[in-house]
Write a structure and sequence with these properties.
The chain has nine helices and 16 strands. The chain has helices at 22-27, 68-74, 109-121, 141-147, 169-177, 190-202, 236-239, 250-257, 261-279; strands at residues 2-9, 14-20, 33-37, 45-53, 58-64, 81-82, 84-89, 100-105, 126-132, 153-157, 164-165, 183-187, 207-210, 226-229, 232-235, 242-244. It is globular and about 55 Å long.
Amino acid sequence: MYKILEKTQFSEKVFKFRIEAPEMAKHAHAGQFLMVRANETGERVPFTFADWNPEEGWVEFIFMKIGKTTTMLSTYEVGDSILDVTGPLGQPSELGDGTWAVIGGGVGLAIAYPIARQLHNSGKEVHAIMGARTKDLLLLEDQFRALLPEDHIHITTDDGSYCEKGVVTAPLERLLQAGTVDHIFTVGPVPMMKFSALTAAKYDTPIIASLNPIMVDGTGMCGCCRVEVGGETKFACVDGPDFDATKVNWNDLRARQAAYRTEEGQALKAYEEANCACQR
C-alpha cells in the first residue's frame, strides 16, 4: 500500500499526488514512469514521475481525470492508500550537451519539468515552451519560472486566454529560426509532438519525444505499448519512453491510442452509474 501524503488540484480535472515510496524515490530518474493500480479490481495505468525526493522518501505524479481509473483516483484524499505502485520503469532520458528547447503540452508539462530541471542543474541552457488549451489547464508555471530566466519561458494557449494565442510550434519555430536552440525534447498530445517533430525537421534539429501509448504491464511482456520507430517495432515501456521524434509513425500511434475509446467510455459510464446508485 502506498499512502497519499499530499493531494493538489490544479483545475477541475487535473490533480497531483505525492505518495510515500522511499525505495522508488531512491532510484527515480527524469523521463521514467510508474504503474498504478488503485485497488484489487483496477487496471494498471502509467504515470510519469513529476518529482521525487530520495531523502524524504516520496514521489509525485500528475494525472487528468479522463477515464474510470483517473476518475476513481480523483476521489482519493490525503491519508488514503493506493494498492500497487510499481517503478521506476522505462529508460531514463539521455540528454546531451547544447542548448535545449523543452516542450510540454497539457499534462505533458509534468514530464517536461523534471527534464528541464535536470538540464538546468547540469549547466545546460534551457528554453521551456509550455502549451495548454486554456489558462486553467496550464501546469507548473511557478516551478518553471523559478527554474529559468523570464526570457526563456514561452507560453501558448489555444484559446488565447493567457500569453500567446496559438500552439507551441510558433515559439519553437522562432527559436529555430534564430539559431537559439540545437536540441529539442517534446512531450504531450500526439498532434503536438508530431508537428513539433515536423518543425524540427525543417531545421535539421534533433528532437526527442516521450511517448505515451496504451500500456498494460509496463515490462514489455504484453506488447500493448508497441510503436513504430524508423520502420521497426519498439516497446515504449522498455525501449522508451523516449524516441527520435522524426522517426515515429505518428498516425499509427494516434490510431492505437484511440483503439479502446469505446470500451473506456463504457467502463467510465458503468463506474459513474454504480457510484450514483450507492449514493442514493
